[in-house]
Amino acid sequence: MSVIAVIGGTGPQGKGLAYRFARGGHEIVLGSRDQERAVTAAAELGERVPSATVRGARNDQAAEAADLVLLAVPYDGHDALVAELAPHLAGKVVISCVNPIGFDKRGPYGLDLGPTSAAEDAQRLLPESRVIGAFHHLSAVSLNGSADLLDHEDVLVCGDDPDAKAAAIELAATVTGRPGIDAGALRMARQLEPLTAVLISINKRYKVRSGILVAGLDPAVDVTPAPPVRPAVPATT
Length: 237
Ligand SMILES: NC(=O)c1ccc[n+]([C@@H]2O[C@H](COP(=O)([O-])OP(=O)(O)OC[C@H]3O[C@@H](n4cnc5c(N)ncnc54)[C@H](OP(=O)(O)O)[C@@H]3O)[C@@H](O)[C@H]2O)c1
Fold this sequence. Notes:
Elements lengths: L2 E5 L4 H12 L3 E6 L2 H14 L5 E5 H7 L2 E4 L6 H12 L3 E4 L4 E4 L2 E4 L7 H8 L4 E4 L6 H4 L12 E4 L2 H10 L1 H4 L4 E4 L4 H18 L31
Parallel strand pairs: 1-2, 1-4, 2-3, 4-5, 5-8, 9-10
Antiparallel strand pairs: 6-7, 8-9
Helix pairs in contact: 3-4, 4-5
NADP nicotinamide-adenine-dinucleotide phosphate (NAP) binds next to helix 1.
């Protein structure tokens, strides 16, 4: 079991993931820019998961105390905060669930970052850390809800360091009940992060909380193409 720090642990996403990790037996340090807010959020989480070891601390202290760190802050202000925390994150696995998303009158959209992503920006700012992208598509409402496991969803994980990626893949099981899915190199975050805008758009249209579930991974599933239902009709001359 690891000590997991959640940077931005006072927000709905950080709280929700911390709740799931705490239930999975991990020790949690909820981080905030403000010590008091962190302590309050930690007390709430401790009440919700009495068996868990939970505390609140300033983001830098939380990062220092952890083996593994989750970045759960808005994209606005992300780079400045990550740069400030760099010395405290050196040598650690850092998981980013940050989605650079904008909203206008037509709905949500992925921000155009050029050939990068929030996770890659974090890696650039944290050369001594191993950054992984994961947990982008889980809604805070579901994470904070009463379902035992979010077993109707998959966690897609991207990263360049195999051991760090394996840690995130394993951690995903505390949320969905099964390991996360290796979605490739860290640069896949350029696709994974804005995909959340599609889910938000679907949620608005259908009044649901949609998620990602990947088909075709079970080797027991026969993927041989089925024969045509009807023989093709010969062309008439
Ligand atoms: N909400 C969701 O359903 C959801 C789903 C998937 C992914 N995400 C991603 O997860 C991240 C967090 O989402 P959220 O909804 O929890 O966000 P949020 O409530 O807006 O922010 C989370 C926490 O970040 C801190 N924060 C806010 N602005 C900051 C700034 N400029 N610099 C540093 N820290 C700041 C705040 O904590 P303190 O004031 O206590 O420091 C805040 O409580 C986002 O990147 C989002 O895209 C969210």
